[in-house]
Amino acid sequence: MPQAPSQRQQNPDPAYLEPGFLPDFCNARVIFLVILGAILLAFVLSLSSMREGDDYWVNLSMIALFIVWIAFGNILVLCVTRRFLHRLSPIVAAFSSYGMSLLVTFVVSILALVTTPQETSPIAQGDSLIMNGFLLRNLAISAIVSAVALRYFYVQHQWKSNIQTEARSRIQALQARIRPHFLFNSMNTIASLTQTNPAKAEKAVLDLADLFRASLGHQDKVTLREELDFTKRYINIEELRLGERLKVELHLQDHLSLSTLIPALILQPLVENAIYHGVEPLTDGGVVRIEIESTARELQLTITNPKPLERDPLRSGNKMAQDNIRQRLQLAYGDQSKMKIRESDEDYSVSFHIPIEAS
User: Fold this and answer.
1) Phi and psi, residue 22, nearest 5°
2) What number of other Cβ atoms are within 10 A of residue 150's Cβ?
3) Across-strand partners of 354?
4) Residues 6 or more apart in contact with residue 11 via CB below 8 angstroms
5) For the sheet containing 246-252, what is the strand order?
6) Who is most buried in 12, 135, 143, 278, counting CB within 10 A?
7) Which of 177, 142, 153 is nearest to 322 (CA)?
8) How high is the pLDDT of residue 311?
9) Would you give the DSSP letter of residue 10?
10) In this structure, are strands 339-343 and 261-263 parallel, antiparallel, or unpaired?
11) How far apart are CA 97 and CA 115, in angstroms?
């Protein structure tokens, strides 16, 4: 088996990788929501400014066109300056984006005045009072709407950060529950070997030491290669105890990227379950099959083990590992990942898929 690295490169905390509180204005969903909000604002302004005798739909269309142009201008400016704004502190980024929003409103308002038909344009008529009132009203509305939007973005960002922090803490707590369980089973294996084969027991101790040296890095996510290496070392320990009764088949899809990030300790506990519940109760042992496939967007992992004809009452009901991993997948990926269990008379299979993440 390949040697586990003595030191792992620490994955940075996701909290430090998050951009500023402003959303990605280059994202299609964000653009759609901004335009939708602009149209709703146009409806409100049109209703509030409607006078008797005015054509409501003409008035609405003119206001909507004007506000949508301001919205597009803000989207364009905030999309282009996105990386620059994310390097700033939240307060500086807020004031910078606030100023840019007012500047866009001012520029679009001037363009609206310039492109107004000459007979009705306040510029052509030299009516500075109307022009100034138009500009000031637009800037005042823009100032209020921008302030409310920035406040919403900040509160939304803080809420998401709190949710991520809570989820990360729960994941680490769930992950911590697996390590003692794994250690307990491994020590039982080593204890049984000390009497029958001291040399193998010594090798198992060394493998276990390497496993825990690699696993105690407190990482939320590791590469698929690291998780496979960890799982193979656990299988080595079990092979020392079960001998030829245990056979493990690993099937990796061609051109599978082993640098894909997955949650730490997501595969080994399921393999441990497969061996404990599927292979160990059988006199002749059996085969644990590990299949890993990927598409452009997700990674699919399946662990299959033989199913004993009769359940051992001492082994039944031990679903801690499955429930633990199901919760961790839910916390890490939400609805993007689901665990499926398939059970027949001959075998038992656990599979789940997770979104692809490059390291």
Assistant:
1) -75, 140
2) 18
3) 299
4) 219, 220, 221, 222, 261
5) 246-252, 286-294, 298-306, 347-355, 339-343
6) 278
7) 177
8) 67
9) P
10) unpaired
11) 27
How is residue 3 annotated by DSSP? P
Distance of alpha carbon 195 from alpha carbon 191, whole angstroms: 7
Is the CB of residue 85 less than 8 Å from the CB of residue 103? no
Q: Which long-range contacts (CB under 8 A, 24 or more apart) does 6-9 make?
A: 6/213, 6/214, 8/214, 8/217, 8/219, 8/222, 8/226
Q: How far is the CA of 272 from the CAs of 3, 7, 244, 279, 299, in angstroms?
A: 20, 24, 17, 10, 21
Measured distance CA(265)–CA(228) in Å, rounded: 10
**For the chain, how far is it from start to end, CA to CA, in angstroms?**
23
The tokens of 1 are what?
Answer: 């088996």
In the numeric block, the tokens 């989820």 are attached to: 167
Distance of CA 185 to the CA centre of its chain: 32
DSSP designation for 346: S
Alpha carbons 158 and 320: distance in angstroms, whole number: 33
pLDDT digits (tens, 9 = 90+) for 97-118: 999 999 999 999 888 887 766 5
Scan for tokens 């992992």, then name that residue. 301
Low-confidence ranges of the chain (pLDDT < 50): 1-18, 119-126, 129, 317-318
